[in-house]
Amino acid sequence: MQRPTERVALVTGAANGIGAAVAERLEQDGFTVVALDVEPSPRPRALVQDVSAIDGHDALVEDVEGTHGPLAALVNVAGIFIAEPVERLTVESYRRQLGVMLDGPIFLARAAGVRMAGRGSGRIVNVTSVHASNSEASSISYDAAKAGLEAATRTLAIELGPFGVLVNSVAPGFVRTRMSVVDGQDELAGDWFRTRYVEGGLLPLRRPAEPAEVAATVAHLVSDDNTYVTGARLVVDGGLTVTF
Ligand SMILES: NC(=O)c1ccc[n+]([C@@H]2O[C@H](COP(=O)([O-])OP(=O)(O)OC[C@H]3O[C@@H](n4cnc5c(N)ncnc54)[C@H](O)[C@@H]3O)[C@@H](O)[C@H]2O)c1
């Protein structure tokens, strides 16, 4: 088995928010992290790439492995949210959200997972959302993409498990990142969040997560400590989904 100091991880969405926290945490844990994002980032080994450009993913993973060594972990974090009441749903925003949060992760997982399987070990984590199981208005494409990615996580776990590749999803609830700002409003700073979730008690821990708290769960799933969790969905939501 590779020692932690020799392990290479590919993290998508690593320029901001949860992806940046995952990249930072895995670096602390001894991984060499390749930080992929469509936006430039100051991280070492940053790769500017659109995850929805799936035709290039086999070549991309081959390149990453050629430069940095065999991938021990892939963490799919990249995401976007476009608020869209169903009557204003457009083909463009639907395709964009599914491209980034479903097509991209699946084809990266195929490229990385098949190589990991050939070597007999690997870890893949897909960051989904409580929206995969609990929906809200104006988020039809986002919800469908996240639910689809959780389904794909289970299928990948079944197919890759016999070859030592463990595949899981991590589903956050409210997290303090720029994604909480929708149409210029920070939903975590508004009356809606305070009265309903904090004072109203729908959120048992009464506060949003920090990105590092989500990263800690991802770090466990890709670590050598995780030898038997696969096909699972770990919910990191401060208790949100048990209250409604
Ligand atoms: N913030 C939350 O409350 C929350 C809750 C549940 C799930 N999530 C999920 O967590 C993930 C990270 O979100 P975040 O809150 O850190 O948001 P964020 O906007 O801070 O970070 C998302 C990152 O993904 C990158 N990205 C977007 N499109 C991309 C593309 N086509 N190719 C490559 N990179 C791309 C962005 O540039 C950005 O760096 C997303 O998948 C999101 O759906 C977030």
List its salient traits.
17% strand, 6 helices, Rossmann fold, 9 strands, alpha/beta, 244 residues
Description:
This protein has one domain (4-242): 3-Layer(aba) Sandwich (Rossmann fold). It contains 6 helices and 9 strands. It has helices at residues 17-28, 57-68, 91-119, 140-160, 191-199, 211-222, and strands at residues 8-12, 32-37, 46-48, 71-76, 122-127, 165-172, 181-182, 185-186, 233-236. The strands form 2 sheets. A 7-stranded parallel β-sheet has the order 3-2-1-4-5-6-9, with helices on both faces. Strands 7-8 form a two-stranded antiparallel sheet. Helix 2 (57-68) packs across helix 3. The protein starts with 7 loop residues before the first strand and ends in an 8-residue tail after the last strand. The mean pLDDT is 96. Bound molecules: nicotinamide-adenine-dinucleotide. Nicotinamide-adenine-dinucleotide binds next to helix 1 and helix 3.
Quickly describe the structure.
The strands form two sheets. A seven-stranded parallel sheet has the order 3-2-1-4-5-6-9, with helices on both faces. It has a two-stranded antiparallel ribbon with strand order 7-8. It has helices at residues 17-28, 57-68, 91-119, 140-160, 191-199, 211-222, and strands at residues 8-12, 32-37, 46-48, 71-76, 122-127, 165-172, 181-182, 185-186, 233-236.
